[in-house]
Amino acid sequence: MNRFTADRLLLFGATGDLAGRMLLPSLCALDAEELLDPALEIVCTARSEFSDQEFRNLARESLEHFLPADRRGGMATFLNRLTYQPLDASTPEGFDDLAQKVGTPERGLAIFLSTAPSLFEPTIRGLKHSGLAGDRTRIGLEKPLGTDLASSCVINDAVAGAFPERRIFRIDHYLGKETVQNLLALRFANVMFEPLWNSTHIEHVQITVAETVGLEGRVGFYDDAGALRDMVQNHMLQLLALVAMEPPVSYEAMAVRDEKVKVLRSLRAVNAAETVTGQYRAGAIGGQAVPGYDEELGKPSDTETFVAIKAHIDNWRWNGVPFYLRTGKRLPERTTEIIVHFRPVPHSIFSGRGARAEPNKLVIGIQPEENISLSLMAKVPGLDRDGIRLRPVPLDIAMDDAFAGPQRRSAYERLLLDLIEGDQTLFVRRDEVEAQWAWVDAIRAAWEEQGLAPKAYTAGSWGPSASIALAERDGVTWHE
Ligand code: BG6
């Protein structure tokens, strides 16, 4: 019963930033390629008063702004699917009218909640009382799901009071990214990596999520969150879990999530000395001057816009293998990548001839470039009269070249379609979210106990120098 294809989609937060930038454009792009069920009606709701037509005009503006012209083919048809119902979700009153607008779907209803966390509970209550939370309804929840373990449990309990876990779809949009899914193909559809994927052969792993953007106008939200809650608690820990998990028995929701949660529960509590936090000051990115965080915010703040962490996974496979994580705003470039550093060869037969074999390195580029590059040692051509020279050469796969045909899709295209069709594989289960919060809460507690304040870094740099020192102490250099 869980796998019905919904013929109604109810979008909360429909006038918000995410809806305008991502959700409506993604749905429209799917529609243009006839990937939405012809019967699907999309009911949009938010607090502002708009008629259906006024909302469609607003949606058209977003589509024209955020969707490339060549993907807007079905825009008129798409806009016709949209209707709008104003609702103050903080009070129960409007929910009956909303239910009336949604009507009675033939197959089922998919709800997407992209609202302020404070509206989660009243919204769930309203849905329940108005009959919108029936057993043919599934619900997608956009982050942030709380600000710590306790508040996330309150939200999860409220949702669980109206929906069983199999109909709750917690979104982490990184799981919708093609290259993130490709990690699983790389690990589990090839024979050569898995035998080496452990502490015997891997020395350390780095995960970097670097952004050039700053606050982007999200003043209230970001200052209460900071980089640890905004990026590490969710996206980075999901990446870590995919890199570190045991082979799942199948590519199904239960199997994949069972393996991820085991990793998340094996994360060792980090002490403050294994973390670095930073906050950007005015600087320049790509030749453009940018203001400091406190200037963008309009007041001084102790919120971290950069964090680096040396993490450990206490299990058999990863014993003694550090995972270096770092993320920050206003860094020199937008890059998300995972680097797997292998150990050196156990004995170099070339050392007597003056050559040094560097350890192999696997670089998995997630964005902006989707590529996989394996550095292999090769002999520099020559007669070797002065000794042998070895040099790393990359075995490079650019996904765009390897798969020039298929359309590249945004994470939300994938996730919205999975929500409508009921596939939970790329959504986060409650126990995962809770394990993530438990780990992150302990880090925050350690910072508070030690009264740690973020160190200044210049916008356009790779964060505070202490982040470089964090890795260099172990003889590790961040991949840049
Ligand atoms: C969001 C964060 O979850 O992810 C933002 O709240 C961040 O602060 C964004 O900018 C990054 O997503 P992406 O897909 O651009 O890497």
Characterization of the model:
With 480 residues, this protein is an alpha/beta fold. The chain folds into two domains: 8-171, NAD(P)-binding Rossmann-like Domain (Rossmann fold, 3-Layer(aba) Sandwich), CATH 3.40.50.720; 175-409 and 429-472, 2-Layer Sandwich (Dihydrodipicolinate Reductase, domain 2). The protein has helices at residues 17-32, 52-66, 75-81, 95-102, 120-129, 149-160, 178-188, 219-244, 253-265, 293-297, 399-402, 411-421, 430-450, 465-472; strands at 8-12, 41-46, 82-86, 109-113, 137-141, 168-170, 202-210, 275-281, 283-285, 288-290, 306-311, 323-328, 335-342, 361-367, 371-379, 390-398, 455-458. Strands 16-15-14-13-7-12-11-8-17 form a nine-stranded mixed sheet, sandwiched between helices. A six-stranded parallel sheet has the order 3-2-1-4-5-6, sandwiched between helices. Strands 9-10 form a two-stranded antiparallel sheet. Helix 8 packs across helix 13 (430-450). The longest helix has 26 residues, at 219-244. The radius of gyration is 24 Å and the shape is globular. The two termini are 48 Å apart. Bound molecules: 6-O-phosphono-beta-D-glucopyranose. Residues 211, 230 line the site of 6-O-phosphono-beta-D-glucopyranose.
